[in-house]
Design a protein that fits this description.
single chain; 447 residues; mainly alpha; Serine Threonine Protein Phosphatase 5, Tetratricopeptide repeat; two-stranded antiparallel ribbon; 1% strand
Length: 447
């Protein structure tokens, strides 16, 4: 039996208008014995056809049930939407396909009218609306309106499948219809971002890390689409649209995260606004990456005290040996700028301990020693004053830096200088200043 596509839509529409609203759709057979018997037969017929994936054969008995017993069971609508989804997916003729898609959309509306559960049903309806209608210019705006309603009635309970697709539908409306202003795009983006953040927070509270990671990827994809909607996301845009709101309420993490994301993308991480946003985010959720980048930015701005605080935090938060090494090297560099050489050496030693495979910490200590000649110079014995270069050489040797080894070797004590002190090559000598190392006389310069 061939199906008349247009009459199919009309029959569904008539059914939609004829029934009372918000029945529970628990299993309820018609009271008339003859009608019940026929209903049981129709259910068996369409169920059998559906099982065999003969979806066209399922349509006639299904339509009889929709018209005669629309409140029989929620199962009726689950089956019906499955059948029409498969028919629409398989149909090649665009006109016939659209008729089937329209029928599918009506089925979701019938389910709400007869069985209630509006939030759940419309969340499912809009998914298929996006698949079948969002790129049809005649339907694109309609799909966006559906999404707007779903977000209005669902709040944070929007299905996860409707997160990224909402932003994609917004983008399609801009691309195909040019029917949205920048403010209208941003209003929807703000609502979507708030819901994703709420879902992430809930998943974190429940210890569902896989969900957290998945939702963060969705958020990244949503943020990537926003500039493609014709919204110019540069640093000036962020200052104009997000700064006033954030400065009024620095505890607004949603806005802080937007500022951070867009200003990072825009390459203006040295902007004071970026730093404020980053600090707000870091305070709520301490993070190695945030801490190390803030430390670097503050260091570049000459705010060494703040830079040191965040560098130390980064060392504590470091998720890997390499990260811990990087953070401790930065701590050491900052302490050097403050003139705290002994403390800097301890930081460099921590870097080496964290990641023995890397030798940068040794090289940094070698630099410290080489640059401490004047600090340790007593100007009594050149041989004694030059011991610091041997200490520096030893550190460069451990780092493997041949060039620096050669450069500092040229500053070693000479044979004559050691003779004057009564020292012989191979003897151990202590350095009395803050360096406090014991070195072996070696490679003495020839006079």
């Amino acid at each position: 039996m061939k199906m008349n596509m247009r009459s199919s839509v009309m029959l569904l529409a008539l059914s939609l208008g004829a029934v009372a609203s918000f029945g529970q759709c628990k299993l309820t057979w018609p009271e008339d014995p003859e009608v019940r018997a026929k209903a049981e037969e129709k259910v068996a017929l369409y169920d059998d056809a559906k099982t065999q994936k003969n979806y066209r054969a399922a349509v006639a008995p299904l339509q009889w049930m929709l018209n005669t017993a629309p409140k029989w069971s929620t199962k009726l609508y689950i089956d019906a939407t499955d059948i029409y989804n498969n028919l629409a997916t398989a149909e090649k003729d665009p006109v016939k396909k659209q008729v089937l898609v329209d029928s599918l959309m009506l089925l979701y509306d019938m389910r709400v009218t007869n069985c209630g559960d509006e939030v759940n049903v419309l969340n499912r309806k809009v998914m298929y609306a996006a698949v079948f209608n969002s790129q049809n210019k005649a339907k694109t705006a309609e799909v966006l309106a559906m999404y707007d309603k779903v977000y209005e009635i669902s709040g944070n309970n929007v299905l996860d499948n409707n997160l990224l697709s909402y932003m994609q539908v917004i983008q399609l409306n801009v691309a195909l219809l040019k029917n949205l202003t920048e403010d209208q795009i941003l209003q929807r983006y703000d609502k979507l971002s708030a819901i994703i953040d709420a879902k992430i927070k809930k998943a974190q509270t429940e210890g569902k890390q896989a969900d957290v990671d998945r939702l963060k990827k969705v958020k990244t994809s949503v943020d990537d689409i926003l500039p493609k909607c014709g919204v110019t996301i540069d640093c000036e845009f962020v200052r104009k649209h997000f700064a006033p709101k954030f400065l009024q309420n620095p505890a607004d993490l949603l806005t802080a995260k937007k500022i951070f994301t867009f200003m990072t993308t825009g390459g203006c991480i040295e902007d004071p606004l970026w730093l404020q946003a980053a600090e707000a985010i870091h305070k709520e959720s301490p993070d190695y990456g945030l801490a190390i980048n803030m430390a670097r930015v503050y260091a570049k701005k000459g705010e060494l005290a703040k830079a040191e605080v965040f560098a130390i935090e980064a060392a504590d938060l470091a998720p890997s040996a390499e990260n811990k090494e990087t953070a401790n090297i930065l701590v050491g560099d900052l302490l050097v700028q403050k003139g705290s050489k002994a403390a800097a050496r301890e930081a460099y030693r921590k870097a080496v301990a964290a990641n023995p495979a890397s030798k940068e910490g040794y090289e940094k200590i070698g630099d410290l020693y080489m640059n401490s000649f004047k600090d340790c110079q007593k100007s009594v014995s050149m041989a004694e004053d030059r011991l610091i270069y041997i200490a520096s050489y030893d550190m460069y040797a451990r780092s493997g830096n041949q060039q620096k080894m050669a450069a500092v070797r040229a500053q070693f004590p000479s044979v004559t200088e050691c003779f004057e002190q009564g020292w012989k090559e191979g003897e151990s000598k202590s350095i009395s200043c803050w360096v406090g190392e014991t070195v072996v006389l070696k490679n003495l310069r020839k006079d």
